[in-house]
């Protein structure tokens, strides 16, 4: 007779167990339970990148006009670019940074929503790769790099790949999470 109050043993992940729908096969959890955490973090990173991209695009239109007004107020223009050329250069620079950050943010949000339901694993890799587009803004650089490392660790895991494959075959998300759960469902104890 086993002690019902003892610490659960996670030695036998591949032992069949009785669940609500009959016997099922519990699989080693790997990092499957981290997929949803990664997906939520990807969505948050995407929202931050979209906000920063919109800010950069807005600054692309506002900042050059401020520079032109400041140079026109000065009596001695500094040698270099004409104010209109500088404004065009700043517009192109800020708009390109903002556009790249918007693309990266949009992909992070879309991939995060898909990954939350164990769909679009390849899209997750693509979103992590395009996250490097936001690095020049410096705002999302550290969180983007951290998310990239964490996402690669999670998405490359063999159990995670199996979970995404199971979802592609039509397995429901709850069933996938139950099969990869580290907490095995045990048969009820017989009455005394």
Q: What characterizes the major β-sheet?
A: 2 strands, antiparallel
Q: Compute the gyration radius: what is it? A: 26 Å
Q: Please list the strands of the largest sheet in the order they lie side by side.
A: 1-2
- What is the assembly state of the chains in this entry? single chain
- Estimate the global geometry from the Cα principal axes: elongated
Q: What is the β-strand count?
A: 2
* End-to-end separation: 12 Å
Q: Could you say which structural class the secondary elements and strand pairing correspond to?
A: mainly alpha
What keywords describe this structure?
single chain, 192 residues, mainly alpha, two-stranded antiparallel sheet, 4% strand
